[in-house]
Amino acid sequence: MMRLPRYVSVVALACAVNSVPLASSAFADAPDIAPPAAAAPATAAPAAAPAADQGTTAAPATPAPGTPAAATPAPATNAPTAPAPEAAAPAPAPAAAAPADANAPAAPAKDLVDAVEDFWYSGKIARYDLQNQNAAKILSHSNEPLQVLMAFEQVLNKRNELSHIDEWLLRWQGVPQVKDNVTKITAVLQQGYEARRSDPKFIEEHIQRLSVNQRAYDLAIERLRQSGELAVPLMLQDLRDPAQTANRDAIRRALRDLGRLALNPLLAATNSNDPDLQIEVIQALGDIGYDVASPYLARLAQDPKTSGAIKDASRRSLAQLNTDPNTPAAGLFYQLGEKFYYDRAAVVSDTRGPQAFVWYWDNQKGLIKTNVPHEIFNEIMAMREAEYALELGGQGGDALSLWLASNYKREVELPQGQTDATRPENSPNAHYYGVAAGAQYLNAALNRALHDHNGAVALKVIKSLQEIAGQSNAFSGEAGAPLIAAMSYPDRQVRFEAAFAIAGAMPQQAFEGSQRVVPLLAEALAQTGQISVLVVAPSQDKVNTLVQGLKAAGYQATGSTSGEAILATANSMPAVDVILISEDLGPAPIDQLFAMAAQNPKLEGAARLVMTKTAASPYETRKASDLMLSTTQVQDPAAMKPPIEQALKKAGSLSMDPALATQFATRSAELLQKLAIAHSQVLDLTAARTALLGALNDARPEIVKLSGEVLGYLDVQDAQTGLLTKAAHDKTADDVKISLFKSLASNAKFFGNKLDPNQVKTLQGVMETAANLDVRSAAAEAHGAANLPPDQAKALILKQAKH
Fold first, then answer.
1. Beta partners for 3?
2. Three-state secondary structure string covering 373-395
3. How far apart are CA 307 and CA 315, in angstroms?
């Protein structure tokens, strides 16, 4: 369902200045942005019109520490509140009104206005058949989105319902009979808004009205708020224009009153080469009152190349922001970069438009912008702040790792099919910069991703580490050993890739955590792409019911009635993604289970989903501070899919389909083979014995072959028995038989014959009777490598002899 942009509830008629000012706005009094009204779609006709808006908040609220930024982040703690607009002057006589706008768009046609009137009325009385008829009339004007918008404004302003347009349209989008048409009308209104808010003539018209009188100013600033960031370049252009001297005070006031909306372009404008304009920008940033400007102002205050006037202006504005002008700008840029990275900066993308804006200063053109997807705006800005920190020579290692992490995150969050226009064509990807920076900084970026539970970013960083990590650098840097920590991450893809990175480094010295590597390789070898659920309930009947229901829903599932038994049960599974626990088990057994899971390599990364009876369960409170813990009141296994998916998502788990599972299994087998050939003294490959023998019965022939090749190099119990059993089976494909017999030969060459007499007889039977000569030849190689008595070979020779 498309949500109507917040602007629609606040725009007024694009007509004369003497229009009645709106009671509410999509943006609160500068500098805050007001949150959107909460409105749930309704499937039945609304009983009555929503209550009138109660006005807007005058001052920003400070977010709780550590809380991600909501729609209205506040200025920095202790920063002064932006000055309030000047007191309104008495309403002027009509003769003092602003001149008529020669460039104003034509008024909407009467038939369109009538259609909007009828559309709105019929929807309010739940005559959805009539509403659809009028929607069709409105949509016949869809190639005139600005006129459609103006028609809605004209009708709803007259009805005093303009502030509730988004609420009602959202409700109607929940009514099946009219949903499609209402969604289309919403899209047309969005286009109308975009056409108007970005029109330079519309913006310049209202910049000129700022200085007419107070009433004109009030309406003009509302219109400029609609344009938001797009108004700032023209406002700065007018400040530089000698012909606009009389309008400068009003423009300065308007920049302040735009508040947060002006921050993004104003920060870029600090790079201006015009000293007079720089001072205007510096003063505006101080007046607006957000400490997002602090690093930019500190850079100017501390730059030996800047003039005394600019330094003085910067220090005054820094004082307004309660920032010590001697605080190193590099450190401030790094701190701002982290705020952007965690979506907590005061500068946010303006989501009223289809894309966000990244601003740059051009000495000839002034402010210019590049449009980017909203999803990657914060990552691009985090990279920019890190670049400034690096340029200034401070926070070197931290700023570099922040830039790398932001770049990886930018790639992860870039919507499929879209591009980042801030990057040149054929620009290297994040991997290029990551491997160029080295393992030390990649480790720091990985540490950040693990701490944030961002599995997608962690996965990309680990894949880069795999290309450059070795014995000398795999654990380098000040972040500890994040690759080892990653082997305990909730998502199995991250766990596997971390184990692959360490195994691929071919470690030659013992290290803490080495015991996790081979079990993870074995787990990866057994992957099929199914989610595995481990059930714990107080009765076997309850366990059986849950397990059977989960299997019917497509999960791998098994279970037990106690925490102690669950460890043995887990070892029978290729992996454990979710531990599903009945609260009826009791607090003490559940806590014991959690403690055991935290110490078990196969269970420590599994999401924990507790089935509760009520919202008053203590686990409801605990889950708020534990990313690994989720709850559900669902008891029916057939309805357990959404809670399981939510638990996996919360724990940072990524999806794995059968094709990806096969890739992991293949890579694991190849790594195990390399380690076996290298005779690794650090990683104990016998821990993969059970998984390798089990993989001989895998449905994927290539996995069977690779597992056999690994067993060919391992001196483990039953290796030769397992290879022979699978190779001699009549349903095994000939190409698989050949591969397994050759692996049996390899094992026998290294470790001698370990087949019993009956198994030798089976091998000899294949040598003599197999229909495929290549199979017989491979079996003969195994026989010969085992250095068995020559009787069978002698018999074969004599049997074929002709005299």
1. none
2. CHHHHHHHHHHHHHHHHHHCCCC
3. 12
Pairwise CA distance, residues 399 & 652, whole Å: 25
β-bridge mates for residue 581, sequence order: 536, 610
Residue 397: the pLDDT is: 85
Mean of the per-residue pLDDT values of the chain: 85
CB atoms within 10 A of CB 392: 22
**How many C-beta atoms lie closer than 10 Å to residue 588's C-beta?**
9
Q: CB neighbours of 304 closer than 8 A, spacing ≥ 6? A: none
Who has greater pLDDT, 68 or 741? 741
Q: Alpha-carbon distance 768 to 776, whole Å?
A: 7
The per-residue pLDDT for range 453-507, each reduced to its tens digit, is 999 999 999 999 999 988 888 887 665 689 999 998 988 899 999 999 999 999 9
| Residue 436 identity (one-letter amino acid) | A
Residues in contact with 232: Cβ distance below 8 Å, sequence separation at least 6, in sequence order:
255, 258, 262, 265, 266, 269, 367
What are the pLDDT digits (tens) for 133-142? 999 999 999 9
Q: How many other C-beta atoms lie within 10 A of the C-beta of residue 386?
A: 28
| Residue 407 Cα distances to 349, 597, 683, 726, angstroms | 18, 34, 34, 48
Query: For the chain, what percent of residues have pLDDT higher than 90?
Result: 70
Cβ atoms of residues 502 and 474 within 8 Å = yes
Residues 496 and 514: their CA atoms lie apart, in Å, by 14
User: Is residue 368 within a helix (H) or strand (E), and if so which, with residue range?
Assistant: strand 366-372
Reduced to 3 states, what is the DSSP secondary structure of residue 786?
coil
165, 175 contact by CB (below 8 A): no
Question: What local confidence, expressed as pLDDT, does residue 480 receive?
Answer: 63
Residue 679 falls in which region: left (phi positive, over 0), alpha (psi -120 to 50) or beta: left
Distances (CA, A) of 525 to 135, 476, 643, 691, 700: 58, 29, 28, 7, 11
Q: Torsions phi, psi of 751, nearest 5?
A: -125, 5
**Contact (CB, 8 A) for 598 and 490:** no
Q: How far apart are CA 543 and CA 453, in angstroms?
A: 31
- Distance (Å, rounded) from C-alpha 429 to C-alpha 407? 8
Instruction: Give 689-719 as a DSSP string.
Output: HHHHHHHTT-S-HHHHHHHHHHHTT---TTH
CA distances from 206 to 100, 184, 212, 266, 690 (A): 12, 30, 10, 19, 76
Sheet with strand 532-536: strands edge to edge: 556-560, 532-536, 578-582, 607-611, 629-632
What's the predicted TM-score (pTM) here? Answer: 0.73
Whether 11 contacts 153, CB under 8 Å: yes
DSSP 559-613: EESSHHHHHHHHTTSS---EEEEEGGG-HHHHHHHHHHHHH-TTTTTSEEEEE-S
Identify the H or E element spanning 361.
Answer: strand 356-362
Contact 314, 301 (CB under 8 A): yes
